[in-house]
Amino acid sequence: MRVAVIGAGEMGRWLANFSRRFAEVTVSDSNRAKARRVAAELKVAARPAERAAAEADLIFVAVPIARTPGVLLRLAKVAPRGALLVDVASVKGEVVKSMEKIKEDVELVSIHPLFGPGATSLRNKDVVVIPVRPGARYQEFRKILERSGARITEMSADLHDQAMAVIQCLSHFVLLAYLQTLRSLDGVKLSRGLRTPIFSSLAELAKAAAAGRPELYGELQRQNKYSRLVRCSLVEAIHSLDVAFARGDYKAVRAIVAWAAAQFGRDQVKRAYEELYRRFERERS
């Protein structure tokens, strides 16, 4: 199999490295020096995008979300008949609409690996698939993912974006807001090196969020049409809790805790609490 990876950023590099296991790989990027550097590091080829796509059986498009529709339309015109054209954008609405406009005889599948370039394998990793025009190439690719340990979930583009508004947009927004609050309060200094288990775990998550790309966080919030809804829901929840605490009314907290126990199960809540302390005690040992 011949694979072209269009976009030599962090995720493009990850895809190229993964694809080396089963294919002959070519990387491309609008920054040709970056493409050559990544190609040299991975010992694969580097070529301009159209040439790489014209010679590939499987074409990954790993460029910024806003650029993905245009790149897909352009590469479909040069892709070989029967090739599989795949994007890895984190927001699917406009991307899938652009795929549906493609008339060329190529397979079209939109995927979202629910992990970043820090992953060392696909084992137990979720990959969402929107099969726009799948065929034999997609079935071959899917088997490669499954043999590598990935968990495949197929859904529509709209359901994907609704789910990612919660899974990504809300989670990122919470952690960025937490970091911003620490910054405004000089909270790291105020903590004086003291920790509780929850503070320690939340601080570690916030540190991990700080390793992400600000541009990607912004794109996710901007491009996902459901992100504003979840942000507004969070702001409303914070306001209602603030009002409740100011009144000394703890019924809202009881309701939240009861909902969590019912939603996740009391056993899972208990296990999470125990694991929190196991991690905390490992950190301090």
From TrEMBL:
One GO BP annotation of this record: tyrosine biosynthetic process
Keyword Oxidoreductase included in the entry's annotation: yes
SUPFAM superfamilies: 6-phosphogluconate dehydrogenase C-terminal domain-like, NAD(P)-binding Rossmann-fold domains
Top-level lineage group: Archaea
Signal peptide limits: none
Residue intervals of the Prephenate/arogenate dehydrogenase domain: 1-275
Database matches in PANTHER family: PREPHENATE DEHYDROGENASE, PREPHENATE DEHYDROGENASE [NADP(+)]
Record-given protein name: Prephenate/arogenate dehydrogenase domain-containing protein
Species lineage: Archaea, Methanobacteriati, Candidatus Hadarchaeota, Candidatus Hadarchaeia, Candidatus Hadarchaeales
